[in-house]
Amino acid sequence: MTEAGLPKYQRVADAIEAQVRKGKWDGGRMPSVRGIAEQYEVSIVTASRALQVLRDKGLIQTVERSGTFRLPPPTAERWAVVLRVTPGQYRRATAEVTRGGFEAVARRYPMHLHFNAFAIEPGLTPDGAERAARQAKADGVQGVFLLPSRASAEDARADEAFLAGCRAAGLPVVLIERGLRGRAGKPECDLVTLDDADAAADCARHLFALGRRRVAVVVASPTSTHNDRVAGYLYALYAARAAGTEPEPPELVIRLPDERPTEGVARFLADAVVRDRIDGVICYQDYVAMGLIVALLDRGVRVPADVAVIGFDNIDVGALFPAGLTTYDYPAAEMAEQAVRLMRERVREPGRPPVRVVVPGRLIVRGSTAPAGGDG
Length: 376
Description:
The protein is 44% helix and 16% strand. The chain has three domains: 3-69, Orthogonal Bundle (Arc Repressor Mutant, subunit A); 78-195 and 332-359, Response regulator (Rossmann fold); 196-330, Response regulator (Rossmann fold, 3-Layer(aba) Sandwich). The strands form three sheets. The protein has a six-stranded parallel β-sheet, sandwiched between helices. Strands 9-8-10-11-12-14 form a six-stranded mixed β-sheet, with helices on both faces. A two-stranded antiparallel sheet has the order 1-2. Helix 4 packs across helix 12 (332-348), helix 5 packs across helix 6 and helix 7 runs parallel beside helix 8. It is globular. By secondary structure, the protein is α/β, with parallel strands linked by helices.
């Protein structure tokens, strides 16, 4: 059949495919259905059918509420992403924040992302990890982005074994968000992290500015993330004291006895808030903040009238929470972009010293914080 005899949608699909195979749109979003229709002077229906042909060929993908993007060619970079998120009710939502950041970068700069390339389980040995890393390299994986577990010492040992195996196999690793649990000092790998100290300081300053005077920070794990947040909180606290804030705010650091988000943890935290007459709380994660709010309301404590609450990460459910959760946004796409940059540099210069990159976030103010004495 000649080109003139092809259906109109097929001719449009062939024209777009030729541009895709020449590398067009490698660095950005493809035109919308309406844009395709206008460019080729066809109907919306014809443009939609043309794009479906390309989806069926595996050349493009459509992401809900984001648009249409070309899929990476077989020769594109190939990375593994391992997210060791703490188990719990909101585990999936928390993982999706980081995963979404990498997927956003991959839509701008086509690359292959493998989220199930490795299984890091308790009891993993360096030899076992090395075998898995060598197999991944044989499958084309060029590097690994790892969000280490913070749940237990046993999980931390598995992470250590994984890193040892990757080193032995010559597979580079970039850590995301935090160093290994229990490890202080400079990381052994490149690390991209939120500016946790500045973030916690911002949260504390926000609460002090609202008239809160007994502000606490809640942490759980012996990780760089939680330690830096305590440091940022203390910096803001002592700055408030130095400025002559009256009454002088006390130092209130609460370390949870159980790192998993359970009702028992929420009750423990609510009891501490009531006992210590705390009027502002900075929680290390949104799900902890939401659990605290529910536990406080069960005790007749009003949020935010009596206690203002802030979380971290800006997971979707926080915006839907009845009170509207004030949170510190996790800059997932920016962190993923920096991680990819570090990984490319590491591949080019495997012998250079490890680098720590700090990415700023932003405070999103919603209804769970308000001036003291405000409506609950």
